[in-house]
Structure formats: structure tokens, C-alpha cells
Design brief:
alpha/beta, LRR_dom_sf, 34% helix, two-stranded antiparallel ribbon
Length: 492
């Protein structure tokens, strides 16, 4: 990657390298210290006519007028190498998007970033026309465009409102189908429940793999709208709703939609019946800082008991979520509790910044298939550390408890855990001694990474001895406690 050099005014050196098809210049970022006016863009476009190596251009700190955007559009129509593009500042606006979109339609782009470009409904209309004929364009970023709103999202979905918007002759709305788009980012775009419902009603919804809606004030009604979207978006793999102001009622409505349909698919050639849940895509769901509480957590618990499967569930920053709430969720993840087969209900769980404590730790220790647990900022303190150490000690003792004359099987604790983040959880040196001792004795046998930074005990002199002892006992366990520190050996 080549970066603009501070203090330089012209880009002649970069133009020379582009014209010479420099094989080392595959990604170019033109910083604000560089000049990038209309004439410079014209020189860039001419140089790109013979270039086959430059694949990425980022110049978002420079204003680009519409007539300049048309030059870049011309470049896109002839370049076979350009894959990723981000141009223009907040003044780019709909006029710039309309000009650029003409080139996007005939380009080889796979990623277009128009974040913070002043895009509104007219720009969305130009983009959807391009999306309908650009099979290579898979990823579109429209973050921080508050002028887009619900109307712009509806237009982007290809749903017209009138004849002038492209409706059919009978008055029914025409729908433009995205040729290749699979990842859509519309964070901070003034979208409400109405916009989400428009997306859910669009046939393009089923084509999405990744949808990021962070920073839109969806409100409780938005939770229900997202629930409708989840019922439609059958190919969705990742949904991010961070800081979307769902509230407890909105979270409750959304969680209810996570329960897979009970409809079964019967094989006509045999008597085998496969639950639809077994073919449902495991979703990465980010509900950070959404104002969730006990009602949302109870609904999530019910969804998991009903067969919901999540590759990731992030509940970070929902301060109203209590220790008992997380413990109830952990109980739902326990052995034999979930429908739909033996696979884990949640593989990656983040409850950082909630009130999760000792009850949560004890319950989560029995969660089947839990591979990653993050509790950063949860005030575990001494009681939480005791619960963690106790559960780790139980894991280290094995899977049987011995009575007088027999052994009875018990569920293994932390059986699949690979990563544990307990930074900033108020653990003192005695707490860390207990946790490290249990790990050294074999607790969480598959653990590969442990984060314990920002705990008071890490500042004690004796902490270094604890680290040394743990490393001796578990040489392949990486321990992170301070920036740059990793006291585990590198696992090849």
C-alpha cells in the first residue's frame, strides 16, 4: 500500500508509478496533505488506462465535484483491476453519486464505500440501478448518511412508490433485483422501523448475507420489524444492531423471531423427516448497547430452548441485564436443554458490561459448545472469582463424582472453552491465585487464550510468579494482561 506523503502537494510520483503499472502498488490511499483536484483525477484516469495491478483507491478526504466524479466513472468502465473504491468527502452528495453510479454499473468493483458522502434518496435511486446490473459488487457501505432515511432505504431495496420511481404500468411498484450485493451497511442513516419493514418486504432481503444497522434509533417497534426481517432473510449470516435503541420491549420482540419454524421437510422417497432448524444458518447477532433488560433476556432464553442457533451473541453494554438474567441464559445452554440436535446453541457469547456475576459464571460453565466467553467489565470480584475457580476445579477433576461405592457421571464444565476474557472484572491477587491455580490443575482443558488485564491483582509483584507457574503448567495457553504481553508459546 502506498500512502500520500505529508507535506507533498502534487501526486506526479504516484501517477508515474500507476502509468508504469508498478506491481507493488496494489492499494493507494491519497491523504489530505496531497493535492487531488480535477486535473489530478484526469491524470489518474489516463494512467489507469494501462494499469492492471492497482485494485484499491481511497481518497475520502478530498472533495470531488460531479464533473470530476464522471471521470472516475469513466475509469471504472475500462479498468479490469479496480475492486475497492472510496472517493469524495461529505460534500459529494447525490450529484456525485449519480455520476459515479454510471461507472459502477459497468465496473469490476466488489466493494464500494460511500460512507459520510451526503447520500439521499436520489443517490439511492442511481445506486439501485447500478446494483441491478453489477454482479461483482458484493459489498456496499452507506454508513453515516442521515439524509438516506427510510425513503432512501426503500429506494435502495428497489421498491418504487410511483410511475416516476419506476413502477409498472398497472401502478404496482417495480422491484429492482440486486445482481450481486450480499453485504449492506447502513449504520447511522436515520432508519426507523418503517425502513426495516421495507427491506423485509423486498425480494432483495433474501439475498443478504451481512446487514449492519448500528446507530439507527429503531426503538421498540424496530425490534418487531427486525423480527419480520429475520423471518424473510433466509441467507443472513450476520446482523449488527449496536446502539439501535431497541429497548427491552424491542429486544423481546426480536428474540421471539429467532425461534426456527417448526415446519418439517419430509422426504417423499423415505420416511425421514428433517427439522427445518437443522438447515437454518447460524447467525452472528450483535445486540450491544441496545437497552436490553430482563424481558429481552427471558425471550432469548426461550428462543434458545426453542431451537435457536447463534454462532455469536453479543450483549455487551446492556447494563440492565442482571446476573440472574445471564445465569438463566446459561441454564438454557446447558446439557440436553436445547432442541435441534447436539450442536451448540451459542458458540461465542459476549456479556461484557452487563451485571453478570457468580450466578452467571456457574451456569455458563455448563453451557454446551461454548467456545468463547467475554465478561470484560463485569464486576465479578471475589465471589465471581470463587465461582469461576470452583467451576474450573470441577472441570479439572474430570467427569465423575465419586460416592461411597460408585462413580456417577456429571456434566463436564468449560468443556469446549477456547477463549476467556475477564479483563477489568475487579479481581485481586488472591482471586487470580485461585483462578490460575484451577487452570494449572487442568480446568478448561481446551483453553487457548486468557485475558486478565485491568484487574487490580495484575499490578501486584507476586503476579509475575503466578504467570510463571501457569505457563509451566499450561505452556500452550496464551495469557494477555498488558498491552504487548503474551506469556504463552506460539501454537503452530
Amino acid at each position: 500500500m502506498a500512502w500520500g506523503q505529508a507535506g507533498a502537494r502534487a501526486i506526479d510520483d504516484l501517477i508515474h508509478r500507476i502509468a508504469g503499472n508498478d506491481p507493488k502498488l496494489t492499494s493507494l490511499t491519497i491523504l489530505r496533505q496531497r493535492r487531488f483536484n480535477h486535473d489530478d483525477v484526469a491524470s489518474f484516469v489516463r494512467a489507469m488506462a494501462t494499469n492492471t495491478n492497482l485494485t484499491e483507491l481511497y481518497c475520502s478526504s478530498h472533495p470531488v465535484a460531479p464533473h470530476t466524479a464522471s471521470l472516475l466513472a469513466e475509469m471504472l468502465t475500462v479498468s479490469q483491476s479496480m475492486r475497492s473504491l472510496c472517493v469524495g468527502d461529505s460534500s459529494f452528495g447525490d450529484d456525485g453519486v449519480v455520476e459515479l453510479a454510471r461507472g459502477v454499473a459497468a465496473s469490476s468493483l466488489t466493494h464500494l464505500d460511500l460512507s459520510n458522502k451526503g447520500v439521499g434518496q436520489r443517490g439511492a435511486k442511481a445506486l439501485v440501478a447500478a446494483l441491478a446490473v453489477a454482479p461483482s459488487l458484493e459489498h456496499l457501505q452507506l454508513n453515516s448518511n442521515p439524509l438516506l432515511g427510510d425513503a432512501g432505504l426503500r429506494t435502495l431495496c428497489g421498491i418504487g412508490d410511483s410511475v416516476t420511481d419506476g413502477s409498472n404500468g398497472d401502478g404496482s411498484p417495480a422491484v429492482a433485483i440486486w445482481a450481486g450485493l450480499r453485504t449492506l451497511e447502513v449504520q447511522g442513516c436515520s432508519i426507523s422501523a418503517a425502513g426495516i419493514r421495507a427491506l423485509a418486504a423486498s425480494p432483495n432481503c433474501v439475498r443478504l448475507h451481512v446487514l449492519r444497522l448500528d446507530g439507527n434509533a429503531l426503538g421498540p417497534e424496530g425490534g418487531a420489524a427486525v423480527g419480520e426481517l429475520l423471518q424473510t432473510a433466509s441467507s443472513l449470516k450476520e446482523l449488527s444492531l449496536r446502539r439501535s435503541d431497541l429497548g427491552d420491549l424491542g429486544g423481546e420482540a426480536l428474540a421471539a423471531a429467532l425461534v426456527p419454524s417448526s415446519t418439517s421437510i419430509t422426504q417423499t422417497s423415505s420416511s425421514v423427516t428433517d427439522p427445518a432448524a437443522q438447515t437454518r444458518i447460524r447467525l452472528l447477532l450483535d445486540l450491544s448497547e441496545c437497552g436490553l433488560g430482563s424481558r429481552s433476556m427471558a425471550a432469548l432464553q426461550g428462543a434458545i430452548l426453542g431451537g435457536a442457533r447463534l454462532a455469536l451473541l453479543c450483549l455487551m453494554g446492556n447494563a440492565a441485564v442482571s446476573d440472574a438474567d445471564v445465569a438463566a441464559l446459561g441454564a438454557a445452554l446447558g446439557p440436553g436443554r436445547c432442541k435441534g440436535g447436539s450442536e451448540s446453541a451459542v458458540a461465542h457469547l459476549d456479556v461484557s458490561g452487563t451485571a453478570a456475576g457468580p450466578q452467571a459464571v456457574s451456569a455458563l460453565s455448563l453451557a454446551e459448545g461454548l467456545c468463547h466467553l467475554s465478561m470484560v467489565g463485569c464486576q465479578l470480584g471475589a465471589s465471581g472469582a470463587t465461582a469461576l475457580a470452583s467451576s474450573l476445579e470441577a472441570a479439572g477433576r474430570g467427569s465423575t463424582d465419586c460416592g461411597k461405592n460408585e462413580s456417577s457421571p456429571v456434566a463436564p464444565r468449560w468443556a469446549e472453552l477456547r477463549e476467556l476474557c475477564i479483563s477489568g472484572t475487579g479481581l485481586g491477587i488472591e482471586d487470580l491465585k485461585a483462578v490460575f491455580g484451577a487452570l494449572a490443575a487442568g480446568g478448561a482443558p481446551k483453553l487457548q487464550s486468557l485475558e486478565v488485564g485491568a484487574n487490580p491483582g495484575t499490578r501486584e509483584d507476586v503476579f509475575q510468579e503466578l504467570l510463571g507457574s501457569l505457563r509451566d503448567a499450561r505452556p500452550q495457553l496464551a495469557v494477555y494482561w498488558r498491552s504487548g504481553d503474551d506469556l504463552g508459546t506460539q501454537v503452530q
